[in-house]
Design a protein that fits this description.
- This protein has a domain of about 100 residues: Cytochrome Bc1 Complex, Chain D, domain 2.
- It contains seven helices and no strands.
Length: about 170
Amino acid sequence: MRLLIGLILGVLLIPFCALVYIQLGLAPVATSAPPLPFEQLITGIAMHKRIDKEAPASSPVPATPETLIAGAHIYHQQCAFCHGLKGQPKTAAGKGEFPQPPQLFEHIGVTDDPVGETYWKTANGIRLTGMPSYRSTLSEEQMWQVSQLLATTVDKLPAEAQRIVSTP
């Protein structure tokens, strides 16, 4: 009986303590604050499981030079504000976010991700980050174009696309 009471109290005590922690204003909510314990682990697992479940397996838009150049224009207009341009310092917006967005085209980011995963992130956004959903802003074709661009290493992009993602 004592074990059962102890178990029930333990199960109720954890949410109560979490609520008190939040009500006292102790939870870190500023972008400069460190993450909560296990925050990155839990949100990372949840995001990757959801993407694995929902991301398209392949792109209906081929990675042609025209597609990559169109994707570069979209990236320059919609993404560079946070993710930056090749060879340029990280933007003020990118530096001020938590977690900071990866500076793409600098050997970090999404070139090793399947194009469907990048498309999913572009279409749906990512909660608790600054990554918005572009589903109501860009067409399906445009989201696939920028996803194809980001799935291609910068040295394999057409010269025109390289110029676009490098020019402020």
